[in-house]
Design goal:
Elements: E1 4-15, E2 18-29, E3 33-37, H1 44-52, E4 59-64, E5 67-68, E6 79-82, H2 94-104, H3 109-122, H4 138-150, E7 156-160, H5 168-185, E8 188-193, H6 196-202, E9 205-210, E10 213-218, H7 220-225, H8 230-235, E11 240-248, E12 251-254, E13 257-260, E14 270-276, E15 282-284, E16 291-300, E17 305-311, E18 314-320, E19 329-333, E20 340-343
Parallel strand pairs: 3-8, 3-9, 6-7, 7-8
Antiparallel strand pairs: 1-2, 1-4, 4-5, 9-10, 11-12, 11-14, 12-13, 14-20, 15-19, 16-17, 16-19, 17-18
Helix pairs in contact: 2-3, 2-4, 3-4
């Protein structure tokens, strides 16, 4: 049996003549946790709504287990959705909220009871059956919304920024809980967020989107360590993106100096973007670095210092656990493996 559960093929969507999605294609496999990541307006929620049956694409195909998904109305798809606004019924208690879909299907009461109890156990809300949902915390309400979705045993669960209304501490806790639930349930999660940390923490694969197009698809490690263009490098974490020239395979010039790198396959003297992650830029005594610079500012970030270092007329962001005070001359070094080369893409 194919691993693919959902396939989008050349999907486009227009609103009032404007392209919201522009010919996107990708596959989601069974049991994966896939995140659609990008800034507001990039098309990620529209993509989710098309999969869920709340929007129809202007062009393209959407397949579910190899069959046309667009022919099915949303309520007949083996797909459930958890929204940022949980849409719980305020006049119902926790039990009745979770059981609602099963009651609509006229499921036997004994079966409903067993399924609701199992769902409550899974989201760590056993004993909350008779609670008023409006008396619950934001995190508890979110768990009820997830329980209501999974009690119907969907093959795919869509989550549209479900942690957006939570405070930072609870959001981090729920990231771990959601990943644990997904692994235990063994169903496919498709998650929408603009939060890079959420995507990196939870996902098996990330689909990075911008302006209705897919910029890169890969594991969190690939997306962070091997960005394919300047947008991905700038959107995922902090980056120094510099102008460079590939002299030849494994040799690049930037900041007025020649460096060894591990990239090849570029044209001779091709103009490129060079990405240096702040944690990969190493500060040394002034006479020991590859190039020299001057620390202009330093801010304590909790687990490291963020410093701005001026060199060759360019400001570099540097993360280090060792503080260099502003005004300190420093040497700057970077190893070949940490120099990422990307093709220049027209803005």
């Amino acid at each position: 049996m194919s691993q693919a559960i959902i396939e989008l093929k050349n999907v486009s969507k227009k609103f009032d003549g404007d392209d919201v999605l522009n010919n996107i294609s990708f596959t989601i496999n069974r049991h994966e946790f896939v995140t659609l990541l990008g800034p507001s307006g990039c098309g990620k929620t529209t993509t989710l709504r098309i999969i869920g049956g709340f929007e129809t694409p202007s062009e393209g195909e959407v397949l579910f287990e190899g069959k046309d998904l667009l022919a099915l109305p949303s309520h007949k798809r083996s797909i459930n959705t958890v929204f940022q606004k949980y849409a719980l019924f305020p006049h119902m208690n926790v039990y009745d909220n979770i059981a609602f879909g099963l009651k609509v299907k006229k499921t036997e009461k004994s079966v409903i009871r067993g399924k609701v109890e199992e769902a409550l156990k899974l989201v760590n809300l056993s004993g909350y059956e008779r609670r008023n949902v409006e008396a619950l915390s934001g995190g508890q309400q979110q768990r009820v919304a997830i329980a209501r979705a999974i009690v119907n045993e969907p093959k795919v669960l869509l989550l549209d920024e479900p942690l957006g209304a939570l405070d930072l501490k609870l959001r981090k806790e729920m990231q771990i809980e959601l990943k644990r639930m997904q692994q235990r349930l063994g169903i496919t999660f498709i998650y929408v967020t603009h939060d890079q940390e959420e995507a990196l923490t939870m996902s098996d694969r990330i689909v990075v989107m911008n302006k209705g197009q897919i910029q890169q698809i890969g594991s969190p490690e690939d997306i962070y360590n091997e960005p394919q263009n300047a947008f991905v490098a700038g959107f995922i974490g902090d980056s120094n993106i510099l102008d460079g020239v590939m002299l030849d395979d494994f040799r690049v010039v930037f900041l007025g100096h020649e460096f060894e790198c591990v990239d090849k396959g570029f044209g001779k003297n091709e103009i490129v973007d060079v990405v240096l992650r702040p944690e990969d830029v190493k500060l040394k005594p002034q006479n020991e670095g590859m190039i020299q610079g001057l620390v202009k500012s330093a801010i304590f970030k909790g687990v490291h210092y963020e410093m701005v270092v001026e060199t060759e007329g360019t400001s570099l962001i540097v993360h280090s656990t060792h503080l260099r005070e502003p005004g300190t001359p420093v040497g700057i070094s970077v190893v070949p493996f940490d120099i990422q080369i990307m093709k220049k893409v027209a803005p």
